[in-house]
Amino acid sequence: MEQSLVTEICPTTTQKWIAEGATLVDVREKEEVEKLRFVAPKILYIPLSEFEDYFQELPKDEKLVIVCETGSRSLRAAGFLINHGYENVVNMKHGLKRWVERGFEISGDPNVVLGNEDDSCCSSSGCC
Questions:
Q1: Tag placement on the chain: N or C end, fewer CB within 10 Å?
Q2: For the segment 15-33, what is each residue's pLDDT rounded down to a tens digit?
Q3: Cα 119 to the chain's mean position, in Å?
Q4: Best CA proximity match to 64, nearest among 45, 46, 90
């Protein structure tokens, strides 16, 4: 099977795709999604662990932006879709972490992806 390269877009460009009707496809696991969610008009959840069993449910005639926490799992899923005949697929590089950093709408605790610096052993002493 011939390999195709996956186009990657940033969260800002993803916002433009969303405005044009694209669907976000979140491949994070259920426990991750419960803690922090993307907010977008059209979003589907198919955990990467179940992706091969359910990817056929994704529409081939719509633009799809594949997303996860950092962009690595979604890159694999996007490549999988392209190699299975999907043409309007991109990966959102840097994932939910960059989405949160850019201030785009979420539901849940942003510290899930940003980390909480108060957890550091040195945060209160200023030694770092």
A1: N
A2: 999 999 999 999 999 999 9
A3: 25
A4: 90
Q: What three-state secondary structure class fits 78? A: helix
0.70 surpassed by pTM? yes
Taking residue 72's Cβ as centre, other Cβ atoms within 10 Å add up to 12
Sign of CA dihedral 52, 9, 26, 41: negative
Q: What is the pLDDT of residues 66-81, one digit of tens each?
A: 999 999 999 999 999 9
- CA-based torsion, 115, 119, 124, 127: positive or negative: negative
DSSP code, position 119? G
Token pair in block for residue 111: 């510290």
Which parts of the chain have pLDDT scores under 70? 1-4, 116-128
Q: Are 88 and 62 in contact (CB under 8 A)?
A: yes
**Contact yes or no for 77/27 (Cβ under 8 A):** yes
At 120 the pLDDT is: 41
Whole-number Å distance between alpha carbons of 30 and 21: 24
